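Predict structure. Chain length: 202.
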Amino acid sequence: MRVAMTYTFALIPLFLLAASAILLAPATAGAQAPAKDDPGIAVITYGDLEITAILDTATTIPPGILFGRKQTDLAADLKAAGVTDGYFPGWVNAFVVKKGKETYVIDTGNGAADGFLAKMRVAGIDPATVNHVLLTHYHTDHVGGLLNPDGSKAFPKAKIYGSVEEDAYFLPPGGDGPPGAAPLPRLFAPYRGDDDYVTFSP
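Prediction complete.
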């Protein structure tokens, strides 16, 4: 299903508000606290939004994918930070945003058994109550949590929203996507089959 920007883009400010709430929390947001004593879960209030920020997993980032700085300078940065394996440490995060009776998920993590879906439940959030899943992009560390380990929908009552450009690049009709995209048809198939997959364009 493809829609124009009118409805779907109305959801995008939730992503922006979630991000700004995380960044501005000490100055402008309400209470911020770990949920269930898990340091990988933080609950933040921002106006009428309740935002749960969840650390899905730690990762490493090769300097070659970073822009705006010479590789020699990046290598010096790593050395100065005491990093010896040549990779920057990184983290995969996803968010749950509640607004009134609606529950939104922004990205889904990489699908690890102890990752985003498991931590949603630790935070007291049932994935089956999610109404909308907004995907920032289709790398597997952002869409890997669309399915349960048994291959069923992790968000059985939700619509999945992604951009037309991401869909065309990662899920072309012939199935010949870019390197690393092999898992994607399987991850999206249950939603596409039930017409719960919505693409949008600005």
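Summary: Strands lie at 2-3, 32-35, 38-46, 49-61, 88-99, 102-106, 132-134, 159-163, 197-200.
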